[in-house]
Design goal:
By secondary structure, the chain is mainly α. It is 58% helix and 4% strand.
């Protein structure tokens, strides 16, 4: 099977919660994770490092290193002399990931309504607006990148770094193959604007509104955004996997 359609360029570097800036390899790994989540890289298909490097406009070495990082996380498997096969995720696994996320993200975000610093909340508005802009442009990788930064940024305000890392890992394992259909139908922007609703409710110190929006928002993960999660199987996806992983 040959994957079709262009892969968007690498998004800007993700801001980190600490003081260290992400390396080039880490930036590429985040872009590849976003491509996995969005379905740009499909389950069961094999991608070579040189093929991905050409599509993303970077050199093969950091792509190979980044894919090895993803292999350690269980997101891809190495295929000798070909590249990397994207790991399939079952519907049950996706349901379980989303359930755990709801148990963590909803109450943690609701609690921010009572005590989060207003300046820190307002600082996330440009990221929320970036999500809306990416949705309007149909740039799914940029959308997922900004969505990750927004939600992890919110959770970081709770002051629990371990909680943030747990959610980061769960988000990396999500699959949102329905996003493409939403873009084609012009419906993704409405979902994107929920990020602004979350901020407005937090700044209004309205816990009930925060809970309602977060519950609806996370519901999309296994609803609107999840269509086609079981699709994909097969062969070399970049039309010519080259030797070496």
């Amino acid at each position: 099977m040959t994957a079709t359609g262009p892969v968007p360029p690498l998004p800007p570097a993700l801001p980190v919660l600490g003081s260290r800036k992400p390396s080039h390899r880490e930036r590429i790994a985040e872009a590849l994770r976003a491509a996995l989540i969005a379905g740009e890289l499909r389950p069961g298909e094999v991608y070579s490092a040189p093929g991905l490097a050409a599509r993303f406009g970077v050199s093969a070495t950091p792509v190979r290193e980044a894919m090895l990082d993803l292999a350690k996380e269980g997101l891809v498997d190495t295929v000798p002399n070909k590249g990397f096969r994207v790991t399939a995720v079952s519907e049950r696994q996706l349901d379980e990931y989303t359930h755990i996320r709801s148990l963590i993200e909803i109450p943690t975000t609701v609690a921010l309504a009572a005590g989060a610093d207003a300046v820190a909340l307002r600082a996330l508005r440009p990221v929320a607006e970036e999500i809306v802009t990416s949705a309007a442009a149909g740039d799914l990788i940029a959308y997922i990148d900004a969505d990750l930064r927004f939600h992890l940024g919110l959770l970081a305000l709770a002051g629990n770094a371990h909680l943030v890392e747990v959610v980061r890992d769960l988000r990396r394992r999500s699959r949102l193959f329905g996003l493409t259909a939403l873009v084609e139908q012009g419906r993704l922007q409405a979902s994107a604007e929920e990020h602004l609703e979350i901020l407005d409710a937090l700044l209004a110190r309205d816990e009930d509104a925060v809970r309602a929006v977060m519950t609806r928002h996370l519901g999309h993960v296994r609803g609107l955004w999840a269509a086609g999660a079981g699709a994909g199987a097969g062969a070399d996806a970049d039309g010519g996997a080259e030797p070496g992983a």
